[in-house]
Write a structure and sequence with these properties.
By secondary structure, the protein is mostly helical. It has 22 helices and two strands. A two-stranded antiparallel ribbon has the order 1-2. Helix 13 (226-234) packs across helix 14 (236-242). The chain is elongated and about 115 Å long.
C-alpha cells in the first residue's frame, strides 16, 4: 500500500514538473527577452513584395515613451519567445473613444477598406516611441503637428491619387499668420491643423459632422477668437448663418482659409484697399441681392464715389466698407445700433471728418447713376460726357486742319520755302 502511494506521489510531482515547464515555455516574454532579438540592428525581415524591414526597436526610445513602463505584450498580446508573425496591434483596446472617432473619419474608412497609404495611429503618434502630446519631442506636440500632417499632405502622389488640396495650399498655410506664428515664433497657441480639422474624426468639409463644415466655421474660429465670435453672432451675417442662410458670410469668406494673413498685409483680402472687392463677392452678386432683397450695385456705386476713387489710387486711409458699416458687428441700417443708421451717420463720418454735422451726411453715399435712381447726377454726367467728348473731337479736328494747312502751304511754296514757278 505504501509502495503504491509513493508511486502515485512521484507521478503527481512529475506531472506538476512537466506542467510547470510547459507554462514556463509558453509564458509571455518580458522586455529583456524581446530585446534579445529586437535589440539587434542587423536583424531584418523580408516582406512578400521583396522589401526588407528592420526589426530593431530602440530600447531607450521605448523606455522614454508613454508606454515605456509597461510590457511588450500589453500591445502584442499574442507574443511569445520566439514567435512568428504577430496579430495587428489594436490601439482601441485601451483607447476606445479615439478608435471609434478614427473609424468614422476619412482616414479610418479607407483603412477599413484595406487602403494602406492613409494614416493609421502609428503614422501620427509613432510606434515604440509614442509620447504625450505635451512632450516637445512628441509628433503630436502642437509645434510638430503641421510637420506630421505634411508628411502625407505634401506628397504629390497622394495629392493626385486622393484629390487632396495642392501643395500650394500647404505652403500657403506655412506662410499664413497662423503658420508663421507657430513655425517662426514658436507660439503654441496659434492654430494648427487639428484645431480646425479635428484630430481623430477628420472629415471632408462638405459633411455636416465635419469640424470645417460651413455652419460650424464661426464656432471653430471662435475657440481662439471668442470676442470676435460674440460680435459676429450679433451681426446681420451671424444671424443669417444661424437661420440657415448658406450664403451668409462666415470667417473664411473674408479672411481666407489656409491663406489667412495679417490685416496689414497688402495681399490680405481684408487689407484696407482690398476690402471693397472682398465685400463685392456677395454684394455685387445679382442672384444674392435679388434673393434677399439687398441693395444692388454696392461695389460699382462705391467705386464711382470719391472714396472709391481714392482707394483705387492707393489711398488706404480713405473710407472703405468697414469704415462705415463695421467689421464683425455689421448691422442693417434700420438697426438703431448700426453705424450707418441715419441718426448715427454724423458720428460715423466724424471719425474721418471731425467737423461733420447733421447736414454732412444727408446725401446718398451709394449713388447709382441712372435716370431712375439719380436723374440730376445722370444728367450732369451725360452733359459732361458729351461736352468733353465733343471738345476732344474739336481739338483733334483743329490740330488735324492745322497740320493739313501746314502741309498744303509747304507743298505750294516748295521745299526751299519759295513760291513754286509756273
Amino acid at each position: 500500500m505504501k509502495r503504491m502511494i509513493r508511486h502515485y506521489l512521484a507521478a503527481v510531482l512529475a506531472a506538476a514538473a512537466l506542467l510547470s515547464a510547459g507554462l514556463a515555455a509558453g509564458a509571455a516574454p518580458g522586455v529583456s527577452e524581446c530585446m534579445d532579438c529586437h535589440g539587434d540592428k542587423t536583424i531584418e525581415k523580408t516582406l512578400p513584395g521583396g522589401r526588407t524591414v528592420s526589426l530593431y526597436v530602440d530600447l531607450q526610445a521605448y523606455r522614454s515613451s508613454v508606454h515605456g513602463k509597461g510590457s511588450c505584450v500589453t500591445c502584442h498580446a499574442d507574443a511569445t519567445a520566439p514567435h512568428e508573425k504577430l496579430a495587428k496591434v489594436s490601439c482601441g483596446r485601451c483607447h476606445g473613444d479615439a478608435d471609434k472617432s478614427y473609424a468614422g473619419s476619412s482616414h479610418g474608412k479607407l483603412r477599413a477598406k484595406g487602403v494602406t497609404d492613409v494614416p493609421a495611429c502609428y503614422d501620427c503618434h509613432g510606434k515604440h516611441d509614442i509620447r504625450k502630446p505635451k512632450d516637445p519631442a512628441a509628433r503630436t506636440f502642437r509645434l510638430n503637428i503641421v510637420a506630421t500632417c505634411l508628411r502625407c499632405h505634401m506628397d504629390r502622389a497622394l495629392e493626385q491619387k486622393y484629390d487632396l488640396p495642392g501643395q500650394q495650399v500647404m505652403i500657403a498655410y506655412q506662410q499664413s499668420v497662423h503658420g508663421m506664428a507657430s513655425k517662426k515664433s514658436g507660439l503654441t497657441g496659434s492654430a494648427v491643423c487639428v484645431d480646425c480639422h479635428g484630430n481623430h474624426a477628420i472629415l471632408p468639409g462638405d459633411e455636416p459632422r465635419s469640424a470645417t463644415h460651413r455652419q460650424k466655421i464661426p464656432t471653430m474660429c471662435g475657440k481662439c477668437h471668442p470676442g470676435i465670435l460674440e460680435k459676429y453672432e450679433m451681426s446681420v451675417h451671424g444671424k443669417g448663418m444661424r437661420a440657415g442662410i448658406a450664403e451668409s458670410p462666415v470667417c473664411t469668406d473674408c479672411h481666407g482659409e489656409h491663406t489667412i494673413s495679417k490685416v496689414s498685409d497688402p495681399n490680405s483680402p481684408v487689407f484696407a484697399r482690398n476690402i471693397p472687392k472682398t465685400c463685392s463677392g456677395c454684394h455685387e452678386n445679382e442672384a444674392i441681392s435679388t434673393r434677399y432683397a439687398l441693395p444692388k450695385k454696392r461695389f460699382s456705386s462705391y467705386m464711382d464715389s470719391f472714396h472709391g476713387i481714392a482707394v483705387e489710387y492707393g489711398m488706404t486711409k480713405a473710407a472703405n466698407c468697414s469704415s462705415c458699416h463695421g467689421v464683425h458687428d455689421i448691422l442693417p441700417s434700420s438697426d438703431p445700433a448700426s453705424p450707418v443708421n441715419k441718426a448715427n451717420l454724423p458720428k460715423t463720418c466724424g471719425k474721418c471728418h471731425p467737423n461733420a454735422g447733421p447736414n454732412f451726411a444727408k446725401g446718398d453715399v451709394h449713388v447709382e447713376v441712372s435716370p431712375k435712381k439719380a436723374m440730376g447726377v445722370f444728367a450732369v454726367r451725360l452733359f459732361y460726357t458729351i461736352f468733353i467728348s465733343a471738345l476732344v473731337v474739336l481739338f483733334v479736328l483743329h490740330v488735324g486742319l492745322e497740320l493739313y494747312g501746314r502741309w498744303n502751304r509747304r507743298k505750294e511754296n516748295g521745299p526751299d520755302g519759295k513760291e513754286g514757278q509756273s
